[in-house]
Amino acid sequence: QVQLVESGGGLVQAGGSLRLSCAASATIFGINVMGWYRQAPGKQRELVASLISGGSTNYADSVKGRFTMSRDNAKNTVYLQMNSLKPEDTAVYYCNVVLWGSRPGNYWGQGTQVTVSS
Asked: What gap in Å lies between CA 45 and CA 108, rounded to an integer?
């Protein structure tokens, strides 16, 4: 079973930057999809960015050009670099990993709060 722990959230002013980290308890093998989601108060959880192992990243239109998702396999960690932050980016951000194959699973981190002030 995979444990995910997010960190890096906080309070920033509009135009600022944050880097979120998601550390996994084990190395991820095989086919998997990693994603960053966010959920603002009163809104549904939405996919912000995703990364297919060995493949490419995809971003929600609202964050394209501002957010970058990356991974460090040696550290079992994925990142979300957030630049040019806007108040509408305020949300709890969650890391997610979907595992496929013989031992499928869907894992979520506990979330980290990002608050962007005007």
From this structure: 12
> Pairing relation of β-strands 67-72 and 4-7?
unpaired
User: Residue 103's pLDDT is what?
Assistant: 83
CB count within 10 Å of CB 76 equals 16
Q: Which residues contact 57 (CB under 8 A, 6 or more apart)?
A: 49, 50, 51, 68, 69, 70
Q: From CA 118, how far away is CA 115, in angstroms rounded?
A: 10
Q: Kindly state the greatest CA–CA separation across the chain.
A: 47
Q: Is residue 66 within 8 Å of residue 83, measured between CB atoms?
A: yes
Instruction: Return the structure tokens found at 95.
Output: 């890391």
Half-sphere exposure of 26 toward its Cβ, with a 13 Å CA cutoff? Answer: 9
Looking at every residue in the chain, the average pLDDT score rounds to 93
Q: Residue 59 — φ and ψ, nearest 5°?
A: -135, 150
